[in-house]
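Q: I have 310 residues here and want to know how they pack in 3D. Can you give me a structure?
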Amino acid sequence: MADIDKVLIVDDEETLTWSMSKSLSKDKDKFEVIVANSGEDALKVLETQKQIKLVITDIRMPGISGLDLLSKIRKEYSDIKVIIITAYGSPDVQREANMRGSLYYIEKPFEIKEIRKIILDTLKEERTGFEGQLSDLLLTDVIQMKCLGKASSSLSIKSGARKGKIFFSKGSIVHAETDNDTGEDAFYQILSWPEGTFASTRADVPKKITIEKDWQFLVMEGLRIADEVAKPPTEKTEVPKPTEKEEDLSKFFEHLDKGFTYLNENNFKKAKKEWETAQKLQPKNEMVKFNLKKLIERETKAKEEAKENK
């Protein structure tokens, strides 16, 4: 039992922590459950207990909130993964949780089997890494999970005879390589592969750092390039002058990047303006359309919640 992994559940509702502990006790051979009924008690547990690999915490608690607890864990116990649960979900809260480094965000009520699966999957990755088929799971989803979870590891991808590897350090993409390329070009090349298998390896460090851009920008740019590669050539399409195209593309990504910056600052109005400008430069770009759609949904939901709270 000394070396068994531990999961800390934090919620001010004692009936909930008791119920979860009871339900998860069937997996006592795989992990041990510890409960705390406040953020303060959780910090005391973290100071004294070893082998805690995962913390599941509610957001709204007296004293130290779940988000504050998440920030302290990311700062002082960076190897511990955190899952946020809440009965008061909103896009703003979810975004804040993601920005602070939450691995998952789950709204109440939830099924205990859902929590159990997440715990087992997370602990399995902690011990041995994980493997999967790209036909079952999008590579971009795996990358997002790595980045939001502040992972330091590598992801090896095989697609037919092609092989590639992406390295992560504390949630940032720092290097990528294929048989014939390295850096950003290798990363974009890997994202264009339609199918294959992947395997994750913990604490795998690259020999050099070749990528410094934000992971969200890299993923969006990679999807754009993959989309362009997949499009069949058309004879009727007028090809703009190279210099003009390059200039428009440069401006497009400048506005796209600014939009993400404003989004991270919760400034929806400026983010929307930047993305609308980007859409004028690339009217058929699906990424911008998707971003604007989600932004409008967030604004609408936020306004509705504001009215309800009055």
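Q: Anything worth noting?
A: The chain is about 50% helix and 20% strand. The longest strand covers residues 162-169.
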